[in-house]
Give the backbone structure.
Amino acid sequence: MTLIRVEHVDKSFASRHGSISIMQDISFEVKDSDFVAIVGPSGCGKSTLLRLIQGLDHPTAGTISFRDQKIDTVCPQMAMVFQSFALYPWLTVAQNVAFGLEALGWAPERIESQVERYISVTGLDGFQEAYPRELSGGMRQRVGLARALAVEPAVLLMDEPFSALDPLTAESLREEVLQLWRDPQLPPDAVLLVSHNIEEAIQLADRVVVLSRRPGHILAQVEVDLPRPRDRKSSAFYDLTDRVYSLITEGGSAMASKTRPEGAPSAG
Amino acid sequence: MPTTFPKCNPTEMMGLLVLLNSHKGSEDVALLADDLDLEIDEIFPALEFAEVLQLVKVADGRATFTDLGKKLVGGSIRDRKAIIRDQLRKTTLFKTLLRALESAPEHTLSDEDLGQIVSLTTAPADEAVQNIVNWGRYADLFRYDADEHRLVLTRRSPAARAGPGQSRPPSSPGNSEGGSPSGAKAAPPAPSSTELRTSIVATATS
């Protein structure tokens, strides 16, 4: 079943020098139990695309729908994990996890049991009363994860969630996200990950959407059919990495030579 | 079990185990580091901690899972935590800490008590203390109240049953810090630091 459908999406921003096109004609789908990664060079609009999908911003043209419903406001079936963790420093771990549920107007007893559940599944027991400043980066990102999962989203959106972490910590959390995604008892049903790290995308995802340089358009959707855990040193892994890398470098420069005049597409 | 605790947090150690698992459970240490574009010494603390917890064995520059380590990576996030809890409990430092918490008034230790106990087995730096508190919290053996600056025993921690007390001669009464141990009727009184030192030496040499 298709959860997210992105159809012919353009996004441009107005500036003093006219309209600047961020992405053009983006179309792809995220189905139930998909793990999809979006990769591309900096500035290709990866993070903007996630914001559009969650309904935090609107496309200039094209449509985005969730379960065939057009998204025009923040979609409660999706939750985001951020690179910067985005925790409230004055709240404890438990209060941070409860935050989204309070915003949804849940009853206090229901919030309490939900918070307990998601603190436990993300490995945060024992840290309920801790403040973010007391935690390592890895534990902070678990709080970000617990907070996102506590609303039981169908789709977990992740914006460079491992980029601010040291390599060992990132390795651990990547594997835990896979565990959560694969567990049928737990949300999410699908994950949409944005990363500038091609290896990370291939290590995690079933499908990698490759974006070009700005204005971002889709160069290819690469299927990753390798058993997990994936060996980054295997030749099959290397071939896929190489293919995506070539797509980005070649696709980017080819595009640069025939960049459309800025300010072309506009809905208004 | 050795009592040197390298500076490393639980998530980092788990990262190393996940990495080793993607190398089929046994790999040259240099190649493991290379896989994450790290220098070899950057993975040592995680590797050493995994050795302390008897999850990995290192011989001839090659790291290999123990049976327990294999079991751990095959488990869920919660199962892993339970294994780490059991393994930490076997270390001298955590035995000592849990015994102190069991016997302390209201099962609570101040920062000062805590620093003293940790300094008996590792370098007495704030970092070392934080590191140990972090592991104990991760394994849900105790919690730390940052507002009150105190370490508190987690309710379900059955340190009294599984604790080190039984195998040792009974400690002398009295000398518990902070007045009468109202919440510790059945528990032994708080050991003095000399006693702790003795018990650590006893365990370390046994």
Q: What stands out?
A: Residues 137 and 143 of chain B are 5 Å apart (CA to CA).
